[in-house]
């Protein structure tokens, strides 16, 4: 069974549906890219997958030994979060909180895990630095180290490259690809066509007619043409 299986999911607020009938699954080694126009419910889906919100109908099933707290999450960054007054070390350690239960301190095991993930994400030398003084790329690698403290199975990334320059964006994608090749399932919401390069599967969200399939299937679909044209128009508009 896959880590996550979503069956006939309808999502929305106060009984009002935003997106209906989502069917997809994410298994070990999958890299799922979630795309769709603004307001189609991508962030709402992420909240549902994290059990922060209930679906109107349908099911999210966990399998293959995945526990609810074993999903690492890299949130969409707000201006406030970029200014967060904590050190890199404090932020990465907070990723282990679900494992601490009611214990009000970090054990050696959690500290060792945070050290390992900071080294892996190349922010160990920055551990005493204040998060808000880091570059955008360093901030994202810190948040990725934090997400990896919560899981070695599934990470959820919500528009992780927003605001990063092309070189840092490419480096960040490479890190996610390396993690995926190590066996971690990646679920990434993105507006960036480049993100599709790394995906094995695509979920293109649409109010009633969403697409889910392999990248190859997506590249042969009308949804892909629509997404490509919309993105080209958007990028063209930004350049003017
Ligand atoms: N807490 C909420 N209560 C009511 N409606 C909400 C709430 N949060 C989001 N919405 C609405 O739900 C719809 C989907 O929002 P969501 O943020 O999930 O879309 P999205 O696809 O992630 O958008 P974007 O691409 O702009 O980030 C939008 O119309 C939004 O206004």
Automatic annotation (TrEMBL):
Transport listed as a keyword: yes
InterPro entries noted in UniProt: AAA+_ATPase, ABC_transporter-like_ATP-bd, Metal_Ion_Import_ABC, P-loop_NTPase
Any GO molecular function: ATP binding
Gene3D superfamilies: P-loop containing nucleotide triphosphate hydrolases
SUPFAM superfamilies reported for this sequence: P-loop containing nucleoside triphosphate hydrolases (SSF52540)
Designated name of the protein: Adenosinetriphosphatase
Listed EC numbers: 3.6.1.3
PROSITE patterns from the UniProt entry: ABC_TRANSPORTER_2
Pfam families, per database record: ABC_tran
Occurrences of domain ABC transporter (ranges): 4-232
Family label: Belongs to the ABC transporter superfamily.
Species this chain originates from: Anaerobutyricum hallii
Keyword field: ATP-binding, Hydrolase, Nucleotide-binding, Transport
């Amino acid at each position: 069974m896959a880590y996550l299986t979503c069956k006939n999911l309808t999502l929305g607020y106060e009984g009002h549906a935003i997106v209906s009938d989502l069917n997809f699954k994410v298994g070990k080694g999958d890299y799922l890219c979630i795309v769709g126009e603004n307001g189609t419910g991508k962030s709402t889906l992420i909240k549902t997958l994290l059990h922060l919100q209930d679906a109107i109908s349908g099911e999210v099933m966990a399998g293959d030994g995945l526990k609810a707290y074993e999903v690492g999450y890299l949130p969409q960054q707000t201006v406030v979060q970029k200014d967060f007054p904590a050190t890199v070390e404090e932020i990465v350690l907070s990723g282990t909180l679900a494992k601490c239960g009611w214990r009000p301190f970090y054990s050696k095991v959690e500290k060792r895990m945070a050290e390992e993930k900071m080294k892996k994400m190349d922010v160990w030398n920055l551990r005493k630095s204040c998060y808000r003084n880091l570059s955008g790329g360093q901030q994202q690698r810190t948040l990725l180290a934090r997400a990896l403290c919560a899981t070695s199975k599934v990470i959820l990334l919500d528009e992780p490259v927003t605001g990063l320059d092309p070189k840092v964006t490419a480096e960040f994608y490479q890190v996610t690809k390396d993690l995926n090749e190590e066996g971690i399932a990646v679920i990434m919401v993105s507006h960036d066509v480049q993100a599709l390069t790394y995906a094995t599967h695509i979920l293109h969200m649409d109010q009633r007619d969403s697409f889910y399939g392999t990248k190859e299937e997506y590249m042969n679909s009308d949804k892909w043409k629509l997404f490509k044209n919309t993105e080209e128009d958007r990028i063209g508009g930004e350049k003017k």
